[in-house]
Structures are given as C-alpha cells and as structure tokens.
Specification:
Length: 596
C-alpha cells in the first residue's frame, strides 16, 4: 500500500548533491532507476528531473529496511538520511553526484510500479510507436526531459528579450472565423449557433494586424496554431509559433530585432556566438545557386547555369529545354571520380526522377580523359567551355539537369546537391550557417486552382518599385518578405504588410477574390483598415523546429511533449475518437458513415 508523505519535505534533488552537502540531513524523492541487493546492504540509484543520486540502505541503520527490500525499478520513494562522502574506491566518475551518497535512515514507498514496457534509459533503443504509446514513461528519460527543459528555456529567453525591446504579450482567440485561403482549417461546430462553425487559427495573422491598427505598436505571442494538412517528419497538426508584429517599420527593422533575438537564444542555450548582421540572399539568388529558398550554406556544390553554352548544341534534351523557356544547370562534385561508382551515379539518376526530372546527365573528368554519354553531341569547344564554366578539374564529376520548367531543374538539382553533400561528407553537423532569404515572388500560379495565389499570404506588401507590375506582369512582382534560414531549415518568416486600401484591393483581385468574397472572409480586418493603419510588419518563428535544431534532433516529435503521429492521431490517448449521440445532437450534427 502506498504511503503518504506525512510531513516529509524534500530538501535535496537527486542530481544535485555534492561534497559541500556532506554531513547534512536530507530527504530525497524520486524514481528507482537501479536497485542492487547485497543482502544486508541495498544500493539504489534514485532519479528525478536533475539526474541520479546513490542511496545506501544498511540493515543496521535504516528504520524500515524491509521496505527497501520490496522496491523495484520505477517505484516512487522518499528517503531520509545523511549525505556522506563515498570511499575512494567507490567514487563513480561517470555520475555528477558520484563522490557522495545518501545513507538512509528511513524510507517511504510512495507508489509501486509494474515492470515498464521498456527501460527508462537513453541507451536503450525503443521503437518510436512504443515510446509514443507510453509517452509518460518516455518523458522520464533524461534526453527527453532535457529537450523540454530546453524548450522552456527558449520561451523564457524570448519573453525576456521581447519585453526588453518594447513588445507586449497579447493572447489572440483560438475560436476564430474560417478564412479558407491556405491550408485546411480545423473546424469546431457551435452548439449555440446551429449549423455554424468556428475555425482553429492557422496563425494569429489577422488579429496581430488588427492589434497594430489598435495602437499596440509591438505585439508578441507564443501562439498555438493548427493546420489540417498532410503531415511530414517536421509537421504537426498543432504547433507553436513565436509570433510578433511591429508598427512603423520597414524590412530592416524587423530583421534586425530578430537577429538579436536569435543571437540571444543561441548564446544562452548553446554558448554559440552568432556573427551579426546575418548574410542576406535574394530568393532568386538562392534558387539559382542552391535550388532552394531555404539553402544549406554549410557546404558548396553551388549550381551553375550553362543554358547559354548548350542551347545551340546537337544534344536535343539540353537545346530543347532552353528553347522551351527552361534551363540547363549543373553541379561540380569535386574530387569524387574515385568515390562514386557507376552504379551509384545510376542510382542518382533514378533519385532525381522522383522530383520530376527526366534524367541526370554527367561528365566524368578522369585521369585517362573524359567519360560521358553526352559529350559526343558537343564540339570540343563547347565541351571545353562547359568544363571551364564549372571549374572542372581532373577527378571531378559534372552533373546536369535540364527541363522546360525551371522549377523542376531547381528542385531536382537542389535535392541532388543535398544528397551529394551528405554522401561526400561535406556537412559539418556542429556548424551553424544562418542567412536571410529576401525578395520572394509575391504571387505564383497554381495549376491545381488555375489561378494566381499569394506565395506567403494576401496581406504581404509588394516591393515599392514593383507596384506597377501588378497591372502589367504580376508574376514578376517581388514581395517585402523575408525568411530566416539555418542549415537548410526555415526558422521563421514574415513580411511587411499591405496597409494601403487600393493595394490590398488589387491584391485580392489578382488572386481571384471579388469585393463581396473579400469582405465575407476578411471584412473585420478591412473595416479596421478604414480607420487609420500604421505601416507594419512582422515575423513568426517555428518554436518546435527551433528547439529541434538547438537540441540536435531530427524530428520535432522529440521536442513536443505529446505529439501526434503521421495520421494526426495520438497513440497515448487514442485521439481522435467517436463521441456519443447526445453530444452530436447538441451540436446539430449527424455522422454519415457511408463511404463514396
């Protein structure tokens, strides 16, 4: 039977006792990590959130030694005793508390435990499905607790920094109006308003702009957001943003304060000194060099455009791509002739096809000469020009992708660049390479919807010098948008917002929203804009991704206490689940179980 504390008060955490505590009476409480029974003496490693401390139960000293004989792994106990130094031969250099131990005089068994389905130990390999089903046990592991402590520390740093810089923390609603422009909303039926629904916020975007209209000047929120979208390793249906908005600012103002915020986080969490200001790359430069709007700058392998050199060759795959308005681009994988076998090169050809490329061409610069299936279509002068453009040297392999659509070339060659960077061991995992990507396209054409859509959102301001393009060539218009990128991961992004009514109306027209539809969806923002709007802009960081990178993890599930799996279900609680008919009737809902 479990005991009550009965007035016992914890005086020391398990992982924080040291030589300075020797001679002190102490009470420690926690979980039994390991128990070693030597008969008249029992040793226990006791665990709490701070780590491990050794407890010694001696039959001649401990008042309830029989209870110590009963305990097993994961029992919760409280122990009274005196902290003593260990004898020199028993000092454990692998434990922070390895120079001392608690000599027990009494014990209370606060809670018994069944044998857990896996050991509570970082060294034990456990299937993630099992970990998530028993998440309360998984979270006892030191590494998982460390991740959540880190997350908490990041939130504290953010709050302190933004308060120092004049920001006000303001909560915005969770039950919102649905605005179907972007990812799918999670809908919440209203019991009071029959047949009507709230939506969970995909972000606080409209509310934070209204707060700027309200004169709040600088707002922030560590905000819960929800998107009903197909999941990947770095996506969750519910996630957290460090969200902010500032009035009377331009791009540089928003970027500067966020550089300093990120520098504070990395300094206090990792001791890493960021060099400010951060490197800035335009979106077009990022795509041309790296094939990605979130480039990994830890290694080279930059892409090179060779379209002008191959447009008049007899190689139809290249010449035809350029003639159709596309391009031919290449990467020089330096010094890898003797690293990549032919079968591996062939596998890379299949790899790029998964990104819609038609194939992968290559030129291998060997000691004995050029090896390639494509150079027979080039004159010697054309071949030399290509090799010179790519700075080709003996030992290099030049990889080419051609397509009539530049976006396919960018994507396929960009992914090949990342794959080669890993394969050739060019990426220093201990390095941090930050940059800003700026001047994104304002609009793009959606083949699925057969219309223009906003690249970020429809409240993003175009560059001043591109305003006239909205009437003549809107796809060429650039946005006052900016993303902070770290090691190929987008940490956060934002923009300067539209605050002029006629520009906002034009933007709605371009994405196919007539005046009535725009007011149905965004009327409360548009009405607010009638009463004086300061120029404003903001940014939102993905807290989960940020902590994932700080912790050196590969999945955001490792830095979220209770994550969902890929089908948006919770293995621990079994959510989502059916609800009873009474609840449905109250919500005026009937579930149709038929399938099309």
């Amino acid at each position: 039977m479990s005991e009550l504390l009965a007035g016992w008060k914890r005086t020391h955490f398990c992982g924080q006792i040291g030589l300075e505590d020797c001679g002190k009476e102490a009470v420690m409480m926690g979980w039994v990590q390991v128990r070693r029974d030597l008969g008249a003496v029992i040793f226990v490693d006791l665990r709490d959130k701070t780590g491990l401390g050794q407890v010694v139960f001696d039959k001649s000293l401990c008042r309830h030694f029989d209870k110590a004989e009963q305990i097993r792994s994961e029992y919760v106990i409280a122990v009274q005793g005196v902290i003593r130094p260990r004898s020199p031969e028993t000092v454990n250099p692998n434990m922070v508390t390895g120079q001392v131990e608690l000599k027990a005089t009494d014990i209370k068994v606060l809670s018994a435990s069944e044998t857990p389905p896996f050991e509570i130990d970082d060294d034990t390999a456990v299937n993630e499905t099992l970990r998530l089903k028993y998440r309360y046990l998984d979270l006892r592991r030191p590494s998982m607790q460390s991740n959540l402590f880190l997350r908490s520390k990041v939130c504290s740093i953010v709050r302190n920094f933004l308060a120092e810089n004049g920001f006000t923390e303001i909560e915005t609603p969770i039950l919102c109006k649905s605005t179907p422009e972007g990812a799918r909303d999670y809908l919440v039926p209203s019991r009071v308003h029959e047949g009507e629904f709230y939506a969970l916020p995909q972000s606080p975007q409209l509310f934070k702009q209204i707060l700027m209209v309200s004169g709040m000047d600088r707002y922030y929120q560590i905000a819960r957001c929800f998107r009903d979208e197909d999941l990947r390793a770095d996506r969750q249906p519910e996630f957290t943003q460090i969200d902010m908005e500032l009035s009377f600012v331009e791009e540089n103002d928003v970027m500067e304060v966020n550089e300093r915020l990120m520098a504070r986080i990395f300094k206090e969490c990792l001791g890493y000194e960021m060099s400010l200001p951060l490197k800035r790359i335009t979106w077009q430069e990022a795509m041309d060099k790296y094939g990605s709007d979130k480039p990994d700058l830890r290694f080279g392998l930059e892409m090179v455009d060779v379209s002008d050199l191959v447009k008049d060759t007899e190689f139809k795959a290249f010449a035809g791509a350029v003639a159709a308005g596309g391009s031919v681009r290449a990467i020089n994988a330096k010094g890898c002739v003797n690293i990549l076998a032919r079968r591996e090169i062939d596998a890379l050809g299949e790899f790029v096809k998964t990104f819609k490329a038609k194939g992968l061409a290559w030129i291998s610069l060997k000691e004995e000469g050029i090896q390639s299936a494509i150079t027979k279509f080039f004159t010697p002068e054309q071949t030399d020009a290509i090799i010179k453009r790519l700075d080709g040297q003996t030992g290099d392999i030049l990889f080419f992708i051609a397509d009539s659509k530049n976006e396919i070339v960018y994507k396929a060659l960009g992914e090949l660049r990342l794959r080669l960077g890993k394969r050739l061991d060019l990426i220093d995992k201990n390095d941090f390479k930050f940059c800003w990507v700026t001047e994104f396209p304002l609009l793009e054409y959606s083949e699925e919807e057969q219309r223009l859509v906003a690249v970020h959102h429809p409240f993003t301001s175009p560059m001043d010098e591109d305003l006239s393009l909205l009437d003549t060539d809107p796809l060429r218009a650039r946005a006052k948008a900016y993303d902070m990128v770290l090691n190929g991961v987008e940490l956060g992004g934002g923009s300067i917002r539209i605050h002029v009514a006629d520009v906002q109306e034009k933007m709605f027209q371009l994405i196919g929203l007539d005046e009535q539809t725009a007011h149905e969806r965004f009327g409360y923002l548009l009405n607010a804009f009638r009463y004086g709007v300061p120029p404003h802009g903001g940014l939102a960081f993905g807290l989960d991704r940020l902590v994932m990178l700080l912790a050196g993890k590969d999945s955001i599930r490792d830095v979220i206490a209770f994550p969902k799996v890929q089908n948006a279900s919770c293995l621990m609680t079994d959510a989502p689940t059916p609800v009873d008919d009474k609840q449905l009737r109250e919500l005026h809902i009937r579930v149709d179980k038929r399938h099309d």
